[in-house]
Structures are given as C-alpha cells and as structure tokens.
Design goal:
Blueprint (H helix, E strand, L loop, with lengths): L1 H6 L1 H11 L6 H10 L1 H13 L7 H21 L6 H15 L6
Helix pairs in contact: 5-6
Length: 104
C-alpha cells in the first residue's frame, strides 16, 4: 500500500480526500467494506486466533493503515525518506500496536 501511494500519488491523495469528504456516504462505505471482505475476514480470523487484539475494527484500522497514509504524505512532501529499513520499522511499530501478546 505504501509503494502504491508513492507510485500513484494522485490516486492516493484523491482516495484520502474523498474518504474524508461529504461524498463518502454510508452506501459507498458499505460498498468499500464489501470490496475489503477478504481483509476484514483475515482480521477477524486473526482476532479469533489470538494473533490480533480483540478490539473494534476502527481501532485496528487506525494503527494498521493511518501510519501508511501519514508516511506517504511525508514522503511526497520530501520530509521523510521511505527506505526499506524505514518501512520495515514502521510495519513493526504498527504490528506491535495491533498484535495480541497477552498469551505469549
């Protein structure tokens, strides 16, 4: 997702803008969720297996995806270098936020 944001910044910015606009209706949101059914199912399976914290999806979404948007914006502004090492660090930090470590 990070690399797509850098390769197609115009689409990435459009998606970000549209998602937070008045044009994002409940109907469009429902359609988006049906398109993301595989991802949502994987998150649910992760929660059921104890791999992912058993918290509401909006909390998981915040820590799984918002870092990507923020870092892509920083890269496009020239204030962050999205090296492979930086992306790996960001992934690990995000994973630490959502991983259920109560049983480990």
């Amino acid at each position: 997702m990070f690399r797509i944001g850098l390769e197609r910044p115009e689409l990435f910015r459009y998606h970000e803008t549209f998602t937070h606009s008045a044009w994002m209706t409940p109907e469009i949101q429902a359609r988006n969720e049906s398109r993301a059914a595989n991802l949502l199912n994987a998150v649910d399976q992760g929660k059921q297996s104890g791999l992912i914290k058993p918290v509401p999806f909006p909390l998981l979404e915040t820590f799984m995806f918002r870092p990507i948007y923020h870092l892509v914006q920083r890269c496009l502004q020239g204030s962050f270098e999205g090296t492979d090492e930086h992306i790996e660090l960001a992934f690990n930090m995000a994973w630490d936020a959502v991983a259920d470590r109560r049983n480990t």
